[in-house]
Give the backbone structure.
Amino acid sequence: MVSITSARLGGILFLILCVAYGIYADDIHLDYWSEQEVFNARSMPYFIAVVGSFCAILLILVPAPKTDWSAVLNLNWLPACLLLVIMSGYGILLEPLGFVIATILLLITAFLVLGVRSFRAPLLVAATIAMAFWLLMDQLGIYLAPGAIPEQLFQYLGGAG
């Protein structure tokens, strides 16, 4: 008789999530010219669904040791929860502020939550990472929205006729 442990139950739920994610990945719209490409907008979601399903099956099949819940409860949960809130805010601010500004704000705030107390180093690192990634995406021809607020400010200052 196979007993349902918390690890197996988590594996079953994770498997359901991964299979649903893989099914919904098929709904991702592809441009006409990318439908026949080997790597397109659906490739990474399919990969994540397959790898996640494999890990879920391992959770279900491999016996798990007894969970020490006292160690889990003693973890410092506040930074983890704050990072989840910050990442949600990033998703909300991405369109109005644009990729570069929203990413810089996300990284600086994450550094502060994780305990970095200086402001200069996180600002330098965040700006460098955001700009380097933006330049890389620009070179690859991938459009990253500049954001509505910076665009309006640029027009207000007379930058674009």
Observations:
- The helical segments are 6-25, 43-61, 69-73, 77-97, 99-113, 120-139, 148-156.
- The CA atoms of residues 38 and 44 lie 11 Å apart.
- Residues 77-97 form the longest helix (21 residues).
- Residues 6-70 form one domain.
